Amino acid sequence: MSDQKTPYQGKNRVYGYFTCDCGKSWESGNSWANMGQMCKTCNTMVYPHHQRRLDRPNLEEDEDNYDSGKPHLSDLCEKCRRLGRNCRGDRW
Fold first, then answer.
1. Three-point CA angle 11, 47, 71, nearest 5°
2. Residue 57 in contact with residue 47, Cβ under 8 Å?
């Protein structure tokens, strides 16, 4: 049985696309290999169904293609919970 819970298996932070069974979906610039985020609607751990490289900000590009700098909800992030701190400062 595989321990891979996410498509991406590297060590860097990536951009993830999440969809919960309750119907809520979201995107996050704080997605990691084999780590999920709690759904704000139903409190279920959700793993990203798609992940891609996290692009650096470029003001001339669409803002949805990179980490927007929005506040990171550490209490909903599996990586933050395991680290005991905000994961956002880790690898770009």
1. 75
2. no
Q: Which distant-in-sequence residues (6+ apart) come within 8 Å of 9 by Cβ? A: 33, 34
pLDDT single digits (tens) 63-91: 444 556 678 899 999 999 999 999 987 65
DSSP helix/strand/coil, 75: helix
Distance CA 33, CA 90 (A): 13
Write the CA distances from 42 to 20, 21, 45, integer angstroms: 9, 9, 9
CA distances from 68 to 54, 58, 72, 78, 85 (A): 10, 10, 10, 20, 20
Separation of alpha carbons 46 and 10, rounded Å: 19
Query: Of 11-15, 34-38, 50-54, 68-72, which gets the smallest average pLDDT?
Result: 68-72
